[in-house]
Amino acid sequence: MLEFVVRVVGVLVAFLVAPLVVGQAEHKVMAHMQSRLGPMYAGGFHGWAQLVADGVKFVQKESVTPAAADKRVFEWAPYVAILPYLAALAAIPIAPGIVGADLDSGLFFVLAVMSIGVLGSLMAGWGSGNKYSLVGGLRVAAQLMSYELPFVLSAASVAVAAGSLSLTGIAEAWNPWWLLWQLPGLVVFFIAGLAELQRPPFDMPVADSEVIFGPYTEYTGLRFALFLLAEYTGIVVLSALTAVLFLGGWSGPGPDSLGWLWTLLKTALVALLVIWVRVSFPRLRADQLQKLAWQLLVPVALAQLALTGVGVVLF
Amino acid sequence: MTTALFAVAAVVAVVSAVLVVTSRRIVHAALWLVVTLGAVAGCFGALHAEFVALVQILVYVGAIVVLVLFALMLTKAPTNPLPTLTTARSPFAAAVAGVLALLLGTGVVIAFGKEKIKPVPAGDAETVGTAIFKTWVLPFEVLSVLLLAALIGAIALSQRKSGES
Fold first, then answer.
1. In 3D, which of A244, A245, A243, A287 has the Cα closest to residue A268?
2. How far apart are CA A132 and CA A137, in angstroms?
3. Which of residues 81-140 of B touch A (CB under 8 A)?
4. B16, B43, B78 — which closes off a domain?
5. What does the pLDDT look like over A63-118, one tens digit per residue?
6. Domains: count for chain B
7. What is the mean pLDDT of chain A?
8. Which of B36, B79, B130, B155 is most worth mutating to test chain A (most A CB atoms within 10 A of its CB)?
9. What distance in Å separates residue A26's CA from the closest CA in chain B?
């Protein structure tokens, strides 16, 4: 019983802290990459409390439901967007045993719940009663249909390589050769993951110069904050998943007891890369987006799966 | 415990399935479909077929419902309620559905009524994979060919020039 409580509290703390850390890192890293300072005042030291202040501000704001909105769908959308990521976070191990819930089909569990999260964006797009929201929702759906396939295929490749669907089992089966052997899969997984999260350069659904803020245009206050939190939790889930599946999770120099530190370090590195990509690349157009998915990522993912199959049978 | 969980999931599935067809707003119908398919996944989960349950969510909720919602956005479906959505044929459709459910139900009861499903871990990925790719590999391949034919047919239809008949 005590163990259960510890696990639940641990997952909740990770859920509440990690996205804020990533968000704050984005503020500061992006600012310095653009020769700015970013937030400097909130909390005193280099604006560390900026996101806490943002949270307090969001809570105080009025939650407006537009008159033309489909009330129930509109109100439920933020929760549908964020809860799946909480569930996904619970299934990702940091070290053997340090996990919310160690599942036999952990990989499929995470992929399945992540695919539910996108329904939140679609519901927001449909329920808002706003044409920009609807166009944004349309773009979300078009993007997700293309990128779900390479995402799952590249994840399946490591599952085949490890001969296991458990995230712990995959990370244990990892060895440094995978960095070469599974490199195409890693690249496809990361790019498709970015597109699933609608992060730049795949942020066409929320392109501010075209559709204001896409599906989230009509949201205010706490509900808007929940969508933002869902995006950053998504980054944490994607980074942790990349670290555990492709980068070996807790394997690294030093004693085994420090394994969790390696997982966190690798997760942080991938998250930094997510931010870096946002600063570096311009937004993709709709046709470029589809072309990239179907003509590059899907073939590469299929080739990786075939290569993995050959490798598993031969060695 | 298993029976109770299964019963709850089944009731949710049936109720939300009824709401799918009676819903006045077409988007609500699609969203109730999410609940139905999720509850069916719950039924699988209650029977310890966790892998099948997860694949059900991944494929149906994650891909097919997104496709449905996407297709809805491309239609002229307004977000307002549609009073004309139910046609005069709906009682007939309900009767057909009821008869079909009765037929399938009796079929299942006659065929498997006396068998007891043991909640053993028979639903993990390994068992399912062995069953599909060893025991049932021929039907699986036949279905694959069928799907491939449908896929090629869809591509051929979409490639047809507007000048041709």
1. A243
2. 8
3. 124-125
4. B78
5. 888 887 788 888 888 998 899 888 888 888 888 877 777 777 888 889 888 888 88
6. 2
7. 87
8. B79
9. 29
Domain-embedded: residue B28:
yes
Domain of residue A307: give its range: 2-314
* Tens-place pLDDT, residues A209-244: 888 888 888 888 888 899 889 889 999 999 999 999
Residue A171 corresponds to which tokens in the numbers above?
A: 């990370």
Q: Which are the contacts of A256, defined by CB distance < 8 A and separation ≥ 6? A: A250
Same domain, B73 and B7: yes
A74, A107, A116, A134: best to mutate for the B interface, most B CBs within 10 A: A116
Q: Which residues of A touch B55 (CB under 8 A)?
A: 108, 112
Return the pLDDT at B5: 86
Which ipTM did the prediction report?
0.78
Share of chain B above pLDDT 70, in %: 85
Q: Is residue B25 part of a domain?
A: yes
Enumerate chain A positions whose Cβ falls within 8 A of a Cβ in B: 68, 70, 73, 103-105, 108-109, 111-113, 115-116, 118-119, 122-123, 125-127, 129, 134, 137-138, 141-142, 144-145, 148, 152, 165
Four-point Cα dihedral A202, A64, B71, A296, nearest 10? 10
CB B86, CB B12: distance < 8 Å: no
Q: Please provide the DSSP assignment of A52-92 as one string.
A: HHHHHHHHHS-----TTS-HHHHHHHHHHHHHHHHHHHHH-
- pLDDT value at position A272? 93
Domain that holds residue B59: 1-78
| B30 → chain A, closest CA residue | A123
Question: Based on the domain organization, do B4 and B72 belong to the same domain?
Answer: yes
Amino acid at A42: A
In the predicted model, is pLDDT for residue B165 greater than 60?
no
Q: How does pLDDT run across B68-108, given as a tens digit for each residue?
A: 877 777 776 655 566 555 567 778 888 998 999 999 989 98
Domain tally, chain A: 1
Count the neighbouring beta carbons within 10 Å of the beta carbon of residue B143: 11
Report the Cα B5 to chain-centroid distance in Å.
20
- pLDDT at site B62: 78
The CATH number of whichever domain residue B19 belongs to comes to 1.20.120.1200
Angle (CA) A190 A247 A144, round 5°:
20
Q: Do A138 and B70 touch (CB under 8 A)?
A: yes
Average pLDDT in the B54-75 region?
80
Are residues B7 and B69 both part of a single domain? yes
Q: Contact, A164 vs A173, CB < 8 A? A: yes
Residue B133 lies in a domain: yes
